[in-house]
Amino acid sequence: ALVSARMAANVGEEEATVSLVDVLEEDEELENEASAVLGGSDSEKCSYPEGYVKRQALYACNTCTPKGGEPAGICLACSYKCHEGHDLFELYTKRNFRCDCGNDKFGEMECKLFADKEKVNSGNKYSHNFFGLYCTCDRPYPDPEDEVPDEMIQCIVCEDWFHGRHLGCVVPDCVELQEMICESCMNKTPFLWNYAAHIAVPPMTKVSPCKGEEDVKVEVENDEEEKKIKNENPRKMILTIYTGREESEEPEGSSEKGSCSGCRLREMKASGRSRTLQGAVFWLSAWRTKLCTCSDCKVLYTDAGVSFLMDEMDTVLAYENKGKSTMQAEQAGGAEGRDPLMSALNNLNRVQQLEIIHEYNDMKTELKDYLQRFAAEGKVVTPEDIRHFFEQQQSRKRRRANAGQYYCS
């Protein structure tokens, strides 16, 4: 069904199609992303006993805590065990959160995995995300009333999600980018604008505000710098933006973190370099290592509530890499029994195992031969073709089953 849905989609009276390779690659990418997010959280145990978890996958239950009530978040395991079949909002990951499942926000409901919870988690932070609303436009995602295709990007400070067209700038097309801070959070931590002038992607464009953005106005900033960057190769461009120096230049003094002779932030302010104080800011990978960690700046981060910026392991990327490592370790360390298919096969005798493997290989060969005919004739595979193939498989299976019935005379 998934293949059929993605292989053909009706657009008016025309049928938009993609190749089977595209479908498989997209599914693999989504699977890897899901594994990275969920792999860092425990799917069997409620995370409540761990306290305010540094980062974890979270959900909100619209069935138990609908809009108008108290916002609440639940961990991965509780979404499976306590809220199965409920209307859930997937919140991706959030930092420093303790599972609410079964506390006072849920009325008479008790957590099936860990019932002994305090009435409320006073350290949790909530937003409109917990009611399935996102961005400055305060809309759901996906939005049935929004006909504009647009990706959503998460701010690393407030952890809200924003439509690309509502960020006050055009999203840079650069694989080196890892994190984004929305304009609102930048204004709440104004000292970050000084860093943005030195170690963030320079502002290139400006777009219209989130409501009534039919006309997109583009305005080029720093024209001379943009022309210079365009003439550089990609690696040199990234280095120049990231470090503020050319590749051949030697850094002044030691650049090791924590070993500066003075305050980096003070030096940046004194340089006189600035940028337009508007729009979201996109940061290059490892930008946090460029932040000053002197005693004065540490107090500044703490007072602004962004001390997590000094923690390189706070990033979603670090969390995803941990999830990937966990999944790979399980697969390499005899996790065969955890795979549903392998678990089912292990419960069968040797004859049944061979029969299933034989049937699977037959189906794989037949499907390959079936699709090769379309490729040879240059035809597009439609959902009807896929359904027809499996209907044929079911028909053959029934004929084989009937042929195998013998009766004593």
Automatic annotation (TrEMBL):
Pathway of action: Protein modification; protein ubiquitination
Zinc fingers typed UBR-type, residue spans: 44-116
One matching Pfam family: zf-UBR
Molecular-function GO terms, alphabetical: ubiquitin protein ligase activity; zinc ion binding
Domain of life: Eukaryota
InterPro entries in the record: UBR7, UBR7-like_UBR-box, Znf_FYVE_PHD, Znf_RING/FYVE/PHD, Znf_UBR
Enzyme Commission numbers on file: 2.3.2.27
Domain called UBR-type: residue spans: 44-116
Keyword Transcription regulation in annotation: no
SUPFAM superfamilies: FYVE/PHD zinc finger (SSF57903)
Enzyme class at the top of the EC tree: transferase
Keyword Electron transport in annotation: no
A GO cellular-component term linked to this record: cytoplasm
Catalytic activity: S-ubiquitinyl-[E2 ubiquitin-conjugating enzyme]-L-cysteine + [acceptor protein]-L-lysine = [E2 ubiquitin-conjugating enzyme]-L-cysteine + N(6)-ubiquitinyl-[acceptor protein]-L-lysine
Keyword line: Isopeptide bond, Metal-binding, Phosphoprotein, Transferase, Ubl conjugation, Ubl conjugation pathway, Zinc, Zinc-finger
Role summary: E3 ubiquitin-protein ligase which is a component of the N-end rule pathway. Recognizes and binds to proteins bearing specific N-terminal residues that are destabilizing according to the N-end rule, leading to their ubiquitination and subsequent degradation.
The protein's name: Putative E3 ubiquitin-protein ligase UBR7
Source organism (scientific name): Sinocyclocheilus rhinocerous
Lineage, opening ranks: Eukaryota, Metazoa, Chordata, Craniata, Vertebrata
